[in-house]
Structure formats: structure tokens, C-alpha cells
Amino acid sequence: MTFRSSLLAVSLILFATDAMAQDVAAGEKSFNKCRACHQVGETAKNTVGPILNGLFGRKSGTVAGYNYSEANKSSGLTWDDAVFTDYIKDPKGKMPGTKMSFAGIKNEQEIKDLTAFLKQFGADGKKGG
């Protein structure tokens, strides 16, 4: 392998890695699909759906003041990347009986981007928390 072909191979790997990285700005755009029912940030309130501040690491069905379905309260799920990915692809398939009426997001990169966006918000709604 010549230096030039090695450089090309490394460049392709770096490009592919960058293309697959999580994109918070794209995740924020994707969150527009969620915004009709969910809020995030310091002024977030429960609406049709619960606030999504501090989602990752939280047990399902535990946001104070939100009236969850029995399916959500008794699911035993703790939100992490894998659980969120499965759920957001098909909410009613992952959690039969959930009140969440959403067709789902099927695109893996979009889910990664949305995950990165949501992970910015701590339980207090502050970014980086």
C-alpha cells in the first residue's frame, strides 16, 4: 500500500466516522416531531406528554405531575440508549398500552441525533446537566 492509498483509506475512515457521529443540531430539528407533545429545557412543563429533561437514566413513568398509562408505569424500563432506540422506532410495539400516539422514527442516524439532543438536558432542564 502506498502512502497515497493509505492516506485515502484514513481519510475515508475519518469521513465515515464524522458522518456517523451524533449531530445535536440535527437532533434538535428532529425534536420538532416530538414538540407537539413534549418539552425540554428549564421552562419545560408536562403537556400531552411528560417533560423529557433528564430522560436518560430515569425510570419510565416517574415524572411528577404527569398521568402515565398503567403500561408505562409498570413497564420496569429505565431509559438508556438501547431502550430509547427501540421505543422511539415503535412506541406501541415496545410498550403495548402506552398512551403515546406516534408512528415512530425508523432512521438510525436520526435516532442517534435525537438522543444526543435530549441527553443535553439534565433533570433540572439545564444543558450539560
From TrEMBL:
Keywords: Electron transport, Heme, Iron, Metal-binding, Signal, Transport. It holds the Pfam family Cytochrom_C. Gene3D superfamilies: Cytochrome c-like domain. Residues 1-21 form the signal peptide. Residues 22-122 form the Cytochrome c domain. This is Cytochrome c family protein. InterPro entries: Cyt_c-like_dom, Cyt_c-like_dom_sf, Cyt_c_1A/1B.
